[in-house]
# Entry
Amino acid sequence: MIDQDVKKVMRRLLLIMGLGLSVPCMGVEVPGLLTAVGDGRVQAVRDLLATGADPNTLNPGGRPVLVVAASRGNTRTVRELLLAGADVNAADQAGNTALINASGYGFAQVVKLLLDSGADPNLKNTAGHTALARATQAGYQHIVTSLTAAGAVEAEEEAKEAKEE
# Structure
């Protein structure tokens, strides 16, 4: 664990870098972790988490930072968030989890990391689509294979819908 004096120094350095636990953005305080995740600044993410940033932070639209990182294919950031205790199955307001988005965008390394960390491959978003449906629809057969090996099952009607879209 990091002692309190080191945390204070790290917070000051992060503030100098413009990445405190929250930063002003267009008149609104935005979590610094959200900014660092969005920018793909892995070391800043690591430092913010070490100084107490919440790995389950939501953006103003209700999207967990883990979903943001996974949607950008940033494996290292996803790993840091998971190590800090991020909820691997957290979903945004549309019900999309990190696994659903990473599968739909073809980020195989992120998909593997999420599955290895216990992500549920059978969760559905509010439209009723799973990670398997998104990967199938996008034509990412290597991800379909990984999801199936991890226990993903597809409802027959969902598979038909995904192929028709």
In short: The first strand starts at residue 22 and ends at 25.
